[in-house]
Design brief:
single chain, mainly alpha, Glycosyltransferase, three-stranded antiparallel sheet, two-stranded antiparallel sheet, binds 2-acetamido-2-deoxy-beta-D-glucopyranose, 6-hairpin_glycosidase_sf, 6hp_glycosidase-like_sf
């Protein structure tokens, strides 16, 4: 799925050091404590309060539920990469067993859920399970079923899967975030060979490429189509600063989503789109390198709230893009930018005293939900550390 970085690249890569916190021994005990505090019947952490940094849990039928189980799988991956020792803290638990256990609460969602396109996110732990045990029938069923849940939301007239339901069924709403959920179609395609799933992923990505991206490489959060005619009704925001602004987390999802489409297809249009979105992201960063919650949100009153989750998601997107660039020197540019984002966000938001790893997440600024830890921000932080190790760009101690 991913082009390996050849070893001859290594000398170029040491230009900038990665933050040691990515591999901190306080990560495993924090995650273990969160696991132990999961309520029964199970609920999953989504974000923290803004004062103590304590997780707030949500019922399984929530779009973010799978990120905590996926975090447990990510620590299992890290154990595979680094070994489990008292000094790295990974000896504290059997992460695979915990990941499997925490995934069970997601299984009923395969058949009924209120998450629309976000079934792709809900499938993450099952996709990880299949990398470990490709014959796990529970995970195979989950992947196929979640892919089916997304596939039935596809409209050939619009050329997209529907992100959210609306009261008017002809109002067909698609958000840039939906690019992340296409991965479940690819995984299920790999299992079944069902060409329809591949066709849907490609068509959705092509339509989104046409309508969600501005000439400057910024993105619209929401595009509403008429499901009867397939025409665009309006472009607007849901969680951004303004209808015509670029909401940073959406931009991050787009970078990752298009790099991922390129990894599955080798279609250079996706590579160009991922580059275009990445360029917008990096050239619109303020001079302090901190990712704002929206690139067009006003600087005054200061400080303009950051979104640490947009930073960690973008870092993963840039690492993926960097690993796929046909010319390694081009790849190095994205990898350096990813490491820079991780350094900046660690300096701002690393929070040993909170239950989350990072603070300064913006869940939804218009809804006044910001300055929190966020479960997917932490997940992508751990994953970025794993990717850097896998790519030979960091050691297990930083
Ligand atoms: C198979 O995967 C599911 C879900 O990820 C997990 O709960 C279960 O324990 C796994 N089964 C085995 C035998 O590993
Ligand atoms: C959304 O609409 C589809 C099609 O009408 C329906 O099957 C589904 O249950 C609805 N709800 C959600 C949250 O997806
Ligand atoms: C979509 O187009 C149809 C046919 O022109 C029209 O009846 C319907 O109101 C439109 N829906 C929206 C949400 O604009
Ligand atoms: C968005 O639209 C407003 C009002 O037309 C305009 O003042 C602003 O410059 C636009 N912002 C961007 C980022 O295009
Ligand atoms: C993309 O190209 C690379 C390098 O030529 C090749 O290894 C890979 O199999 C191709 N992937 C796809 C999906 O065609
Ligand atoms: C980061 O979070 C702290 C409190 O947790 C807050 O005081 C600070 O203003 C935030 N900075 C940004 C840039 O969001």
């Amino acid at each position: 799925m991913r082009a390996p970085i050849c070893l001859s690249l290594l000398p170029l890569a040491v230009a900038q050091s990665v933050p040691a916190q990515l591999f901190s021994s306080i990560i495993p005990p924090k995650v273990l404590a969160t696991f132990k505090s999961l309520p029964s019947p199970i609920q999953y952490p989504q974000y923290t309060d803004t004062i103590q940094g304590e997780w707030i849990d949500f019922v399984p039928d929530t779009w973010t539920s799978a990120f905590f189980p996926a975090t447990l799988y990510a620590l299992n991956t890290r154990k595979t990469l680094c070994g489990a020792t008292p000094s790295n803290g990974l000896n504290a638990a059997n992460w695979l067993a915990l990941g499997r256990s925490a995934s069970n609460g997601l299984i009923p969602l395969e058949l009924t859920n209120n998450q629309g396109h976000d079934v792709g996110f809900l499938s993450f732990p099952f996709v990880e399970e299949l990398k470990i045990n490709p014959s796990n029938q529970t995970a195979i069923t989950a992947v196929k079923q979640f892919a089916q849940d997304l596939a039935v939301r596809f409209s050939p007239i619009v050329g997209c899967t529907r992100s959210w339901n609306t009261t008017d069924p002809t109002d067909f709403t698609v958000i840039i975030d939906n690019m992340m959920n296409l991965e479940i179609l690819w995984v299920a395609y790999g299992l079944t060979g069902d060409e329809n799933l591949r066709h849907i992923a490609i068509t959705h990505a092509d339509t989104t490429m046409k309508n969600h991206i501005r000439p400057d490489g910024g993105t619209w959060h929401v595009v509403e189509y008429n499901s009867t005619t397939g025409l665009v009704i309006r472009k607007r925001t849901e969680q951004g600063f303004a209808d015509n602004s670029t909401w940073s987390r959406g931009q991050s999802w787009g970078i990752y989503g298009y790099a991922n489409m390129y990894s599955h297809t080798n279609d250079s249009a996706y590579l160009d789109t991922a580059r275009n979105l990445a360029n917008y992201f990096l050239t619109n960063l303020p001079s302090d390198g901190i990712v704002p919650w929206d690139f067009n949100a006003p600087l005054i009153p200061a400080p303009r709230p950051a979104d640490s989750s947009a930073a960690t998601i973008a870092a993963n997107g840039l690492l993926l893009l960097g690993s796929l660039e046909p010319n390694p020197a081009d790849g190095q540019k994205w990898i350096n930018a990813a490491i820079n984002l991780l350094n900046k966000i660690t300096a701002l938001a690393w929070k040993p005293s909170w239950q989350s790893l990072l603070s300064n997440g913006t869940v939804n600024k218009p809804a006044n939900n910001f300055l929190t830890g966020i479960v997917y921000g932490d997940y992508y932080y751990i994953r970025a550390g794993n990717e850097l190790i896998s790519m030979g760009l960091a050691t297990c101690s930083g």
